[in-house]
Amino acid sequence: MTYDCFDVSIESRIAHIVLKRGDALNTMIPAFWRELPEIVNGISDDGAARAIVLSSTGRHFCAGMDLAVFGAGGLPGDAVEPGRKNANMRMQALHLQETFTCLERARMPVLAAIQGGCVGGAVDMVTACDMRYATADAWFCIQEINIGMTADVGTLQRLPKLIPEGIARELAYTGARMPAARAREVGLVNDVFDDHDDMLDGVMGVAAEIAAKSPLAVWGTKESVNFARDHSVADSLNHIATWQSGMFQPADMMATFEATTSGEAPVFDDLPRVRRGLE
Prior knowledge:
Elements: E1 6-11, E2 14-19, H1 30-46, E3 51-56, H2 67-70, H3 82-105, E4 110-114, E5 117-119, H4 121-127, E6 131-135, E7 139-141, H5 155-158, H6 165-174, E8 178-179, H7 180-186, E9 191-193, H8 196-211, H9 215-230, H10 233-247, H11 251-262
Parallel strand pairs: 2-3, 3-4, 4-6, 5-7, 6-9
Antiparallel strand pairs: 1-2, 7-8
Helix pairs in contact: 1-3, 9-10
């Protein structure tokens, strides 16, 4: 399928989603918000891929929200009752949030590869990924405060759980740029690479390591880490006990043990395709 904002490929069980509007700084035009969840949910539901790499083209990873989005999605008519107009605005914000929450909800890990500027809505996007990697020239900016608005698509909810809260607050209040070296120092990115090619090689290497593991075990691990982030230790222990009671099966462990004995790589079944509705 052809998309306005993305190129998508799957090779060696790694799905690669590439923002392809580099000449336009990969701004998030209205089509972006339709296409990304369609792509990510489709990959997650299909189950053939075991890791997703999200990368970009051009000088900057993404310059954030396109101004056209601010004028999209309103109710028709010149004189809409304020309560209805405001309720519709809330629903639009929830829709935009879901575009990035799908990355968090995907059954396989999502790795973001970031070059140049990662601005505004792009920070919302990458904080919803499992891991982030950057080039040495990359930088991050919570741009919303610089244009007189409060970020509302995920940055303020996720960033303080990825880096120290005081640092997250400083970035959110000032709109200052955080360079890649500082982002690695505070734990926002896992690693920094000299250039884009080196970064993609490194990120694809990590994705390949993940893809070689049991996809069911990786899915369970992602579910558990995400749950623990938002719940108490006691609730999280109860959650993993319940998960294991349904999902833990010995087949993948036996495949690992047999592969260790034979000296060969283990072979695991893909995740089953998700059936939605009565399809």
